[in-house]
Amino acid sequence: MATAYCLKCKCTRDVSDPRYETLKNGTLTVKGVCPTCGTKLARILGKAAKGAIR
Ligand SMILES: [Zn+2]
User: Fold this and answer.
1) How does pLDDT run across 3-42, given as a tens digit for each residue?
2) Ligand 1 centre and the CA of 11: distance in Å?
3) Rounded to the nearest whole angstrom, what is the distance from the C-alpha of residue 13 to the centroid of ligand 1?
4) Ligand 1 centroid to residue 20 C-alpha, Å
5) Domain total for the chain?
6) 54 within some domain
């Protein structure tokens, strides 16, 4: 499970329904929803994580 910082909760949450995207420059990002408040979350995982998930 990926985690991201929720601005609304002001703490790190597990990302609900995480979707991984790789940017054109090779940076892996994860986008999802905060399970507590429903705010959209996004986090940059970095190039090092590429290949670890897919
Ligand atoms: Zn939240």
Assistant:
1) 999 999 999 999 999 999 999 998 999 999 999 999 999 9
2) 8
3) 7
4) 19
5) 1
6) no
